[in-house]
Amino acid sequence: MLSFKEAIQLVEDEFLRLTKDIIEVNLSDSNGLTLAEDIYTDVNIPAFNNSSMDGYAINYASGKKSWVITGEISAGNFQDYTINVNSAVRIMTGGRIPTNTNAVVPIEDVNEDGSMLLLKEGIEIKLYQNIRHKGEDLKSGLAALTRNTVLKAQNIALAGACGRTKLKVYRKLTMGVLATGDELVDITADPGEDKVRATNLYSLLAGVKEINMNPINLGIVKDDKDLLMNSISSALNSDLDILITSGGVSVGKYDYLKDIFKEARVECIFWRVNIRPGKPLFFGKYIKGNKTKLIFGLPGNPVSSFVGFTLFIKPAILKFFGHEFFNSQTAILETPIKKEDFKRHFIRGKLKLDIASKRYSVSIPSSQSSGNLAGLSDSNCLIVIPEEMINPTAGAKVECIII
Ligand code: AMP
Ligand code: MG
User: Which residue from 302, 330, 321, 332 is spatially nearest to 393, judged by alpha carbons?
Assistant: First the structure.
């Protein structure tokens, strides 16, 4: 059976064969998108020398402790008072500093007495203090943001400072999520004694949103070959980029999806990976004209489908968009783990930092049944137990994938 690393490689290789479409969006709609161009500033940032404090602009001469206040400049309201060693101009944060200023004395360091400004006892002035220089942040023409930046509030602010109202970004992948199973009911229904709320739909749609892609809810389909064929072929003929299904991909009598994919001309790249949970995982591609769709058939167990998304889909997409993805932490295992096979295990864990020793440790909060949603919700990581590691004991060093 395919190893975890081989499977990951195959997924990444297929993503790298896809093309990323470049579109233009308004700056205000760019949050979470990936920049597809380098951005240069068209002006100096800041555009003029200005004060970083509310205070007084002076031309400082050593030993000087008092000045005559000759004017006032507030932010955006400049008047050029030429100052000399005896004069001071009241200035607000962001105000452009007048000619000859070589220091701004903060309000807290002085007293006003009529038109006189008096330095408080014990205060020292340093030349050029509290002056923000023109172009100090970025000189006109220099690169402000580089391609592949995921645009967050702080980056959007900088693009705005560069005068950009529109940005070239990569189009989000549209990812359809389909839940399969006779037992599934919508989460609004009472599951009664025999049915299950289709929670995977929601966890997978949320996962897609978390990586800033475009989620499409394709609903629930019963374990019926015709119905499945209908849903799968309409998904394959839609403009989805990625199709994710949950359930029906194992070896049970009603697990039809693998056959349906084959019938629908989805090329199987792999089925089953040597991991736990989540072994029966289908990965394939569907090529029509010059467009390739990638297909992930995740197992139905809620933990398995979550793990499948976390391990195979999320990192591959982030990598495809050129993002750096640091999501793991080495920690000391607090409790022994029973693991007697040569699969790679991903165990729900609770990672915590001990402030005193600056060391991370990880405990196992609950049952590891692949249906245990409460346990999954209570975890903050997946502990990786590699293939060759058997029954790790307390104290073992393990890698934890942050979730
Ligand atoms: P399957 O992979 O179809 O054999 O399903 C395995 C288990 O996962 C069964 O217990 C299902 O009831 C459960 N399951 C399947 N799909 C979902 C879903 N969308 N949400 C929650 N549980 C599911
Ligand atoms: Mg099923």
Answer: 332
